[in-house]
Amino acid sequence: MNMTDRTGIFAGDNPFEIARRWLSDATETEINDPNAMALSTVDETGLPNVRMVLLKEIGDDGFWFYTNYGSAKGRELEYAGKAAIVLHWKSLRRQLRVRGRVVREDGPEADDYFASRSLKSRLGAWASKQSQPLASRTALMAEVAKVTAQKGTNPPRPPFWGGFRIEPVEIEFWADGAFRLHDRFVWRREEYENEWEISRLNP
User: Which CATH superfamily is domain 3-118+159-201 in?
Assistant: First the structure.
């Protein structure tokens, strides 16, 4: 492709750096949760599932987020080992799409992130049996009170809670264009160790 065609907001030799720049731009313009992303998974029957989660980091090896491993998304991520995400920034008229394999992260990084959360969020993580049936909100709050008495003011990270990293084989950068003639550039690699190939796509 003609590399000079990929200028402005699409410029750069590292897709992770471009993604971080786009997220930084969104942080200045989005009213709520610029790091909100739709996470798509499939269950054991192949039925798709999608929900909004919060992206916590874009590293040079992937896109990080955290959840309860026993939740529907946690189980589906473990089962399939692959996932897709999309971040849509209406204020910028841009979106970022990612597909790749999933790696579980439950080491020091997960411990550090859990410790950085508010106390109520940490206690809530212990109390919630995410995605499981719940009798009532009263029952949930009773469980929170129970956990608070048990775990105190500095609860450790639960063994059933931690991170996932999506290591992409495909990253697409999309920006709105006049008359629906949008600009789309996709970075692809067949293997995770391979160099990226970049293509401009039709709108």
Answer: Electron Transport, Fmn-binding Protein; Chain A (2.30.110.10)
Is 66 flagged in the annotation as binding?
yes
Q: pTM to 2 decimals?
A: 0.90
Percent of the chain with pLDDT over 70: 98
Q: Tell me how far apart the alpha carbons of residues 6 and 198 are, in angstroms, rounded to a whole number.
A: 10
Reply yes or no on whether the pLDDT at 26 is more than 70: yes
pLDDT in tens, 166-200: 999 999 999 998 888 899 999 999 998 899 999 99
Is 131 known as a binding-site position?
Answer: yes
Of 157, 180, 188, 189, the active-site residue reads 180
State the pLDDT confidence band at 2, using cuts at 50, 70 and 90.
Answer: very low
